Amino acid sequence: MTADPKLAEAGVADPSVIEADVNGRVPVWALALAAIVVAAAALFGLALLGGQSLPERNGPPVEELAVERTVLLPQVIELTIRNTGPDPVRVAQVFVNDAFVDVVGGTAPIDRLGTATVRLNYPWQDGQPYLISLLTSTGVVVEHEIPAAVATPSPGGVLGLMALLGTYVGIIPVALGMLVLPLLRRVSPTVVRVLLALTVGLLAYLALDGGIEALELGGRSSGAYGGPALVALGAVLAFLALTFIDRVLRSSRHRSEASGASGLRLAVMIAVGIGLHNLGEGLAIGSAYAVGELALGAFLVIGFALHNTTEGIAIVAPLAKERPSLMQLGLLGLLAGAPAILGAMLGAAVNNSELSAFLLGVGVGAIAQVIVQIAPALRGRSGQTLNPAAIGGIAAGVLIMYLTGLLVTA
Prior knowledge:
The chain is α+β, with helices and mostly antiparallel strands. The protein has helices at residues 5-9, 15-24, 28-53, 155-177, 181-184, 189-220, 229-252, 263-290, 298-316, 326-337, 339-350, 353-374, 388-405, and strands at residues 65-73, 76-83, 91-96, 99-100, 102-104, 115-121, 130-136, 141-146.
């Protein structure tokens, strides 16, 4: 049956085509919805009937406990424990340095992934090591070591101190690095490309350093939520999220440079990546202080200041040929430096290894996406991305971050 040309010219669909769609074709969304419903019903039935058809497991219960947080108060040790095994766990007795102690909490069964707070009445002494042994109802012993007992600071005073420390190591150094912008406007395009390569080196070192620290934190966590796998999860999610943001910014701005990215947009992406890294850096500072492992002092402030000043240079490098306003520069500095304050406060208050590992992974993924954004701007006249100038700039950036990192004594 041929279509009516008059209907086609008027923009009206042929009735025969409509009839074919109604009678012979099902919309895609309906097929997808039906597939989801069928799969959900099948999985529900499998969980309901399949579990009952399996035989009971032989052998003793599998009991696993992990200590996620330690709080030291006068004459008291508080442990937050999590059940990371498949079976419920009940704490029967607790020993500190092989001495039986009174315990409050943990006697009720703790279900899988559940938590409980165990309060030990024990006259601990400042600076002394302690080995805590948790004995479950089936005789399994879980040990937790306190290398040096230090009183846990009160949250009120800590948050103010962490805000001040985050300002010292985050906002101020980034702002100082951004002061080189007037100088960048007077240099040649080759020097700008070298500075962008220097930025890639700085960011690559930050990603490597953050990734190593995140994997260490993930390995020390309870493992209930994946441990080191959280690092990969955070990195992938951050990379995809920033890629989406970049596409939105790119579509909203109908102008671009030859590199495929405007200077201001690229500076925003760099500031976001550095800010997420500084969030993880602040978490590490706050967590270390919460357990008494942070040596506060001039070397810490100076070390971080020198280390993070280069981040400000990285932010303004793409702005050498643009004229951003003072408000835009201020917002870029806050975007990169302020997360250090939030991270330090969160780390001191929460002190959770898995959260720290995840957020450090987020920083790694963000920095990786920013490096992808900067790479096209490194091309010289020959069209090569890794030309001698770019290679030298990248190597110099890695070396600068390594040397300034040696001054950070946390």
